[in-house]
Write a structure and sequence with these properties.
The complex is a heterotrimer of chains A (173), B (320) and C (500). Chain A has 173 residues and is an all-alpha fold. Helix content of chain A is 72%, strand content 0%. Chain B is built from eleven helices and eleven strands. In chain B, the strands form two sheets. A six-stranded mixed beta sheet of chain B has the order 2-1-3-10-4-11, with helices on both faces. Chain B has a five-stranded mixed beta sheet with strand order 7-6-8-5-9. In chain B, helix 2 crosses helix 9 and helix 6 crosses helix 11. Chain C is mainly alpha-helical. A two-stranded antiparallel ribbon of chain C has the order 1-2. In chain C, helix 3 runs antiparallel to helix 4 and helix 5 packs antiparallel against helix 6. Chain C is globular and about 65 Å long. The chains are: A mainly alpha (173), B alpha/beta (320), C mainly alpha (500). Chains in contact: A-C, B-C. The interface between A and C is large, with 78 and 69 residues.
């Protein structure tokens, strides 16, 4: 079982995440004038949101812990050493093969599309997207992905460029 | 010597020919006009018929993109940073080209350095309108009323001609009013007709239909002489308030746009004035502007920037 | 009956071959762009406006209106089939519609969505015909304070969209509000949270955020389990809703229609709020709320009806007062202006053919849409039988082209990927993205109305409690919070007692 599914750790980490985003929000909002309650400046509302995020984050992070504390359970689970050990358990070789690699392939495919469209054109960009991100599936095979990519590239040009008239380059410029 | 001169002339002609060649096939794809206010507002009303007429004479679609917010500066910034190839133009207003510079502390574009004028298209007076329940029909009655209770006036946003006319009106008449900015004319009108604010300053064309339908009443207008469409409505001057303003709209291109393209657009904008759709604007309160030489345009814009910059400083207007 | 006389004028105007043709064309185009994620009705109508200049005004408006409500139909198709909400109103449809699709009930979900929308469209058309003016008067009662309170109620209701923890959902709403405030501040012109990136000056586009959080994240999550379980059940149940399904969907659709019809007339967030509110209502009314998010048919029927009814009644402020309530309506104003029709309160009396013709065309357009969409269901469902290893690259292609085409921006595609990875993280952390999206959509409007309301009240925050409509909305929000917080509160209390 993926240790992240443990509700305790899930809540703790999401609470921390909300606190971090809240802190960044507060820092960024304080760059702008606050104004008064009558004439609010650009920073007023975001600052309030940042504080709200921190409050909610602390609540989310500590609520489950407090519950366990009240029930007399050990919360030593949240010591940095323990967290590190848990993280190491998550990021094992199995996890890399199953989670990180597929996510990375999808990501590289999408980035390739974004990067290539302007220079190589829609045909090449779609082909790259399909072949790279398609390889993320454990049953992927070149013999399927190449024709699929080529077919989708032609279809995409037909629908988006000719059909809808979107101003996208088709071929390398 | 003669030969050299001749060669120089030929060369110049050739290069001109070549630089013109890129403009000769202009436009070969849709041209985009950014309207820096939401659709349906006074600026949009001017832009639509011109876009239609231009599209016809340029033999390419002219598309309008509405980019509202921050008194038009969001849309203006977009055009200022776009490629100067004549395919992205700005429907600039007195706000984006003259007022914002003085009003907004951090403006992301420079109206003088980032743009060159193509044509000044139309102008209109600003009308002071009120919710029918407001117990004042003249400026004098408004002054009395303002002493008894707080009056709020809406505008299409900070830096719009409505906002500034309101600020000038306040300082010239001594009447206390609170400014409430909106994101365009339509939401401000919605609140005015709903009675959530009492007054509004907005160019005539966006409020005329509501005045005629009795949903709003007009108190005064900002032009030097009464509008032929509202002959009974006094000017601010006739009401004893020394304010005279005009809202205007023009077509602008990024500053690096080639001369030939700007000249072509200016020519087509000129002939667009004769199209039926554009002529129609005169029926709803707009005054179509005559042709101006580039020098006249530059002078006009310089004067406007000076005039509105002074108005912003004198009236103490600020971003609310 | 004056109403029937008026509807007669409308039918007379619409029942010409040309106008029926434009109505059908609009509905067809709308469905197509609704199905394709990214390309919304605003962009399409903006693109098509010049073509309509040559048409008679009524034909032009009929076609543009058809595109608008056609897109509402089409948008639910991609939401149900592949979890891609191209419009803010179809976010809710993703929740239970996509769950149904994974259970092999995509046909039922699509059928219920189409029938619910048709029902809502019919009722909403009647409402517009019968009560446009009083409804428009009602909308005028909403000032900035009322809007702020309405948005607040909507955000509290958004918490119900999530299955899990109450506070996590609240935090996700707040996160959405923060993301919504990225970009240039409408009032001061200052750039907030852009970190010097020019592409962010205009804010984050809804499509970029929703495609990332829903579409791309879902694909990454599915790939993780690709060797263990199939994403879509290959056995297809009934292709169309059974009588039992229809019975379960009838009341939610009716309630959704009424909710959507009322909220739709409110400018700005009204139409968006209607689908969210309907979902909240159905989940609260259900005997077993835990089914929601796992393929509850009520969670599709109610919001879809609400969304379509809201889309329809959002025409009311435009037709009765000449005030556009959203971007599409504003473009309709543009179309009217070109034809020399100045939108305003006088349209109904001065141009009865145009007014009633447009209203009647809405109903006829709904008929076209149901005729168009029901036969398509079979094709859509077959699409899900494509093995997932081939299906997800197809989804990615449509996703990426759609995102790119909004601003011709590669940056947007990359940003969507960032949100996709964030969505994956949220999935692992048990934080559901739907409340975040509603916060994102409502945030800017909420801030704008808060600032305006405080300005109008000279900084006196009691204005939210002293104005009756606003106070009522806030009371509802408070009641909802208490209702939501109570089971958890009770549980913790019980545990505390047990230990004592």
């Amino acid at each position: 079982m993926n240790p992240l599914f443990l509700p305790k750790l899930q809540d703790f980490l999401s609470g921390v995440l909300f606190c971090v985003v809240g802190a960044v929000t507060i820092a960024a909002a304080s760059q702008h004038p606050l104004g008064t309650a009558m004439r609010m400046g650009a920073g007023y509302f975001p600052l309030f949101l940042g504080v709200l995020l921190v409050v909610f984050g602390v609540t989310v992070a500590t609520r489950t812990m407090l519950k366990h504390l009240r029930q007399g359970q050990n919360i030593g689970d949240f010591s940095p050493a323990r967290l590190l050990r848990t993280l190491r358990r998550i990021v094992d070789r199995e996890a890399v093969r199953k989670i990180v690699l597929p996510a990375a392939l999808v990501g590289v495919g999408v980035l390739a599309f974004a990067g290539l469209l302007g220079s190589v054109g829609l045909l090449g960009a779609i082909l790259a997207l399909v072949v790279i991100s398609g390889a993320a599936h454990h049953e992927a095979s070149w013999r399927e992905l190449l024709p699929l990519g080529a077919g989708l590239a032609v279809f995409g040009v037909g629908v988006f460029v000719w059909g809808l008239g979107l101003p996208l380059p088709v071929l390398p410029t | 010597m003669k030969k050299i001169l001749f060669a120089a002339i030929v060369l110049t002609a050739l290069t001109c020919g070549f630089s013109g060649a890129s403009a000769a096939d202009y436009p070969n794809r849709p041209v985009k006009i950014v309207v820096p206010f939401p659709a349906g507002g006074p600026t949009d009303i001017v832009a639509r018929p011109y876009a239609e007429a231009l599209g016809e004479s340029l033999h390419n679609p002219v598309i309008i993109e509405n980019r509202g917010g921050a008194g038009g500066s969001i849309g203006a910034t977009e055009v200022a940073k776009s490629t100067a190839d004549g395919y992205t133009l700005l429907l600039g207003t007195v706000g984006t080209q003259a007022i914002n510079e003085a009003l907004y502390p951090k403006l992301a574009y420079d109206p003088a350095k980032d743009f060159r004028p193509v044509a000044i298209l139309a102008a209109a007076p600003v009308a002071l309108v009120a919710h029918p329940s407001v117990p004042a029909n003249t400026v004098a009655e408004l002054a009395t009323l303002a002493k008894k209770r707080e009056l709020r006036f809406g505008s299409a946003g900070n830096g719009t001609p409505g906002h500034l006319t309101g600020e000038l009106f306040k300082s010239a008449s001594g009447i206390a009013l609170t400014h409430v900015p909106y994101k365009g004319s339509a939401p401000a009108l919605q609140d005015l007709i709903g009675g959530h604010i009492e007054l509004m300053f907005d160019p005539l064309q966006s409020v005329l239909a509501h005045i005629r339908a009795g949903k709003l009443k007009v108190i005064a207008i900002s032009s030097a002489i009464p509008s032929p469409l509202l002959p009974q409505t006094p000017t601010f001057g006739a009401s004893g308030v020394n304010v005279e303003t005009t809202a205007w709209w023009g077509l602008f291109a990024p500053v690096a746009t080639p001369d030939s393209i700007v000249a072509r657009l200016a020519k087509e904008a000129d002939s667009a004035r004769k199209s039926a759709a554009v002529k129609q604007l005169e029926n709803i309160g707009l005054v179509l502007q005559g042709t101006q030489t580039p020098e006249q345009q530059t002078k006009f814009l310089q004067d406007e920037r000076a005039k509105w910059g002074k108005a912003v400083r004198d009236s103490g207007a600020r971003v609310d | 009956m004056e109403l029937f006389g008026n509807l007669g004028i409308g039918f007379d105007a619409v029942l010409t071959l040309a106008n029926l043709g434009y109505c059908f064309l609009g509905a067809l185009l709308g469905t197509l762009i609704g199905v394709l994620p990214g390309l919304g009705p605003v962009a399409t109508i903006a693109m098509l406006l010049p073509i309509t200049y040559g048409l008679p005004p009524l034909s032009a408006l009929i076609m543009l209106a058809g595109i608008y409500y056609g897109a509402q139909y089409g948008g639910s198709t991609t939401a149900i089939l592949v979890n891609l909400p191209g419009e803010s109103s179809s976010v809710v449809t993703c929740l239970d519609g996509y769950a149904m699709a994974r259970q092999g009930r995509a046909g039922v979900a699509l059928g219920v969505a189409a029938l619910g929308s048709f029902f809502a469209g019919t009722v909403a058309t009647m409402i517009i015909a019968a009560a446009a003016s009083p409804l428009a008067e009602f909308a005028l009662k909403f000032g900035p304070a009322e809007y702020f309170s309405l948005m607040l109620l909507g955000l509290v209701a958004a918490v119900v969209l999530a299955q899990g923890d109450f506070f996590k959902a609240l935090a996700m709403v707040a996160l959405g509000l923060v993301l919504g405030s990225v970009g240039t501040d409408v009032s001061s012109g200052e750039e907030r949270f852009t970190f010097g990136i020019p592409e962010l000056a205009d804010g984050i586009s809804f499509v970029v955020l929703s495609m990332g959080l829903f579409g791309i994240a879902e694909i990454i999550v599915n790939l993780e389990h690709s060797d263990k379980r199939e994403v879509f059940k290959q056995k297809i149940g009934s292709l169309l809703p059974t009588r039992h399904d229809l019975k379960a969907a009838a009341k939610p659709a009716l309630r959704g229609t009424l909710l959507g019809s009322v909220l739709g007339i409110l400018p700005g967030g009204g139409a968006v709020l209607s689908s969210f509110t309907s979902y909240t209502l159905e989940k609260r009314l259900a005997a077993d709320p835990s089914r929601f998010g796992k393929g509850a048919i009520e969670g599709v029927a109610g919001p879809e009806a609400a969304n379509n009814a809201g889309a329809q009644t959002s025409f009311i402020p435009l037709l009765v007062m000449g005030l556009p309530s959203n971007a599409v309506m504003a473009l309709m104003v543009g179309a009217m202006m070109i034809h020399g029709i100045v939108p305003g309160p006088q349209i109904m009396s001065e141009r009865p053919t145009l007014f009633w013709g447009l209203i009647v065309s809405m109903w006829i357009g709904n008929v076209f849409l149901i005729l168009l969409n029901m036969p398509l269901i079979g094709i859509w469902v077959r699409l899900l039988q494509v093995p997932y290893r081939l299906l997800y690259p197809i989804i990615l292609v449509f996703c990426c082209v759609g995102i790119y085409s909004i601003n011709n921006s590669a940056f947007d595609v990359g940003l969507a990927l960032v949100f996709g990875l964030a969505g994956y993280l949220f999935n692992k952390l048990g934080c559901e993205p739907a409340p975040l999206l509603l916060g994102f959509v409502l945030g800017p409007m909420m801030e704008e109305n808060l600032r305006r309301a405080m300005l109008l009240a000279r900084g006196d925050a009691t204005v939210f409690f002293t104005r009756p409509i606003s106070a009522t909305l806030l009371a509802l929000a408070l009641a909802l919070i208490l209702l939501l917080a109570s089971p958890t509160a009770r549980k913790t209390r019980e545990e505390a007692f047990r230990e004592a």
